[in-house]
UniProtKB/TrEMBL annotation:
Record EC number: 2.8.4.4
Function recorded in the entry: Catalyzes the methylthiolation of an aspartic acid residue of ribosomal protein uS12.
Location of the Radical SAM core domain: 157-387
Name of the protein this chain belongs to: Ribosomal protein uS12 methylthiotransferase RimO
Gene3D superfamilies in the record: Methylthiotransferase, N-terminal domain (3.40.50.12160), Nucleic acid-binding proteins (2.40.50.140), tm_1862 like domain (3.80.30.20)
Annotated HAMAP family: MTTase_RimO
Length: 464
């Protein structure tokens, strides 16, 4: 079985869309296709748009040619993502001709129409009503109460057994390399009861894992003026942990109160997994980023988290080649990584983004230097991952089964988020295993990013 590639894109939903969606309306009923690019937060937006359209009587097409119009949900975070979005718009225009654009890049309509003047409409991120209006104008709905059936959980672009749960929009940070606050606005948290209602409905309909996402998860609720709790994320995590599903926290900014989340992980209500975007370790680099610049204190926090929950898994992302980054600053990052021993690590080479304040910083790093530093960083991160996974051989752990075919089962441990971390593969003793099952597995082998094992109690790898 193939290993999970270390450079897999975590944010590309289109392959799942084409695989999982087929035309669900018969005859001449209008159908809409969807191209969903960008992060899981954009994927949730796509699900909400399709759910609304499905409730209005539209069918959902998994290909361009079977659709009366196509919605392209774009990403505009990096220039490379913008180029990918423009390419996807062009492909949809060539194959279908009737294209509506939404998402983060939609905040720059002239940029889109300058490249593709034939698009029918352009709307910005999470502008659901405007997207629906554009669809109505292009393809009027034709509701049929005898045909229109909407799943209780809505239209989902993820497998049935896990789902992203978006708890807020926007961000109040002013990181110089990021334009997300300009695109999606300031922090706007969903009401606690609304989040819980959605989570309860998802679990009732078979979801075994809730992936909590936002731009700044640990800031959830701090935008409420009359809140009772100082940090509402703690109450939300506690309540989600009582639903009986795996609860995984993503995009947790390293505020001091994150330390209060960790006991919930030790108790088992929330998965012992923190996705925290540290971005760098040298204080001067962090200051140029407009990020918290206390790297030593961060190491102290990591030690405290591990003391409170020894099984905690830490994932983070970093930027190398940020403007002004010296060799000494980069070496500080490598040394910090040696001390932090993070379990899951992603790394990006800095690139300018139109509108970002970092573009104006002096001393931009040459592309070849950025590439060389990225390779050195990933080599160290891979070695750490390899050692940590090797230590799991011979242990017994729980896994969630993502898919099963004749070759085997692809699973994830509590340490693995879907599509961005590793997998655990089972290639024998598959009797009775189905997607969505939670199994106990004996780990037999490890590589740099993945594990192999067999269901607990079955024959070992050394049996004849």
């Amino acid at each position: 079985m193939a290993q999970n590639p270390p450079d897999i894109r975590p944010d590309r939903a289109q392959a799942r869309l084409e695989r999982d969606l087929s035309t669900v309306r018969p005859g001449a009923q209008p159908t809409i296709g969807m191209v969903s690019l960008g992060c899981p937060k954009a994927l949730v937006d796509s699900e909400r748009i399709l759910t609304r359209l499905r409730a209005e009587g539209y069918g959902i097409s998994g290909d361009y040619t079977g659709a009366d119009a196509v919605i392209v949900n774009t990403c505009g975070f990096l220039d490379s993502a913008k180029a990918e979005s423009l390419e996807a718009i062009g492909e949809a225009l060539a194959a279908n001709g009737r294209v509506i654009v939404t998402g983060c890049l939609g905040a720059e309509p002239e940029y889109i129409t300058g490249a593709h003047p034939k698009v029918l409409a352009v709307t910005g991120p999470h502008q659901y009503e405007q997207v629906l209006d554009a669809v109505h104008a292009a393809v009027p709905p034709d509701p049929d109460p005898f045909v229109d059936l909407l799943p209780a959980s809505g239209v989902k672009l993820t497998p049935r057994h896990y789902s992203y749960l978006k708890i807020s929009e926007g961000c109040n940070h002013k990181c110089k390399f990021c334009v997300i606050p300009d695109m999606r606005g300031r922090l706007a948290s969903r009401p606690h009861k609304a989040v819980m209602r959605e989570a309860e409905k998802l679990v009732e309909n078979g979801v075994r894992e809730l992936l909590v996402i936002s731009q700044d998860t640990s800031a959830y609720g701090t935008d409420w003026r009359d809140r009772e709790a100082k940090f509402p994320i703690l109450d939300l995590a506690r309540d989600l942990g009582q639903l009986g599903a795996w609860v995984r926290m993503h995009y947790v900014y390293p505020y001091p109160h994150v330390r209060d989340l960790v006991p919930l992980m030790a108790e088992g209500g929330v998965l012992p997994y923190l996705d925290i975007p540290f971005q760098h370790a040298h204080p001067d680099t962090l200051r140029r980023m407009a990020r918290p610049a206390a790297a030593e204190r961060t190491l102290d926090e990591i030690a405290a988290w591990r003391a409170a929950c020894p099984d905690i898994v830490l994932r983070s992302t970093f930027i190398v080649g940020y403007p002004g980054e010296t060799e000494a600053e980069f070496q500080t990052l490598l040394d910090w990584l040696d001390e932090a021993q993070l379990d899951r690590v992603g790394c990006f080479q800095y690139e300018n983004v139109e509108g970002a304040r970092s573009n104006a910083l002096p001393n931009h790093v040459a592309d070849e230097v950025k590439a060389e530093r990225w390779a050195r960083f990933m080599e160290k991160a891979q070695a750490i991952s390899e050692r940590k996974l090797a230590a799991k051989v011979g242990t017994r752990i729980d896994v969630l089964v993502d898919s099963v075919d004749e070759e085997g089962a692809i699973c994830r441990t509590k340490a693995d988020a879907p599509e961005i971390d590793g997998n655990l593969f089972i290639d024998r003793n598959l009797g009775g295993i189905s997607a969505g099952d939670i199994l106990t597995v004996d780990v037999e082998e490890a590589s740099e990013y993945d594990l192999w094992g067999v269901p607990a109690g079955s024959e070992s790898s050394h049996a004849t």
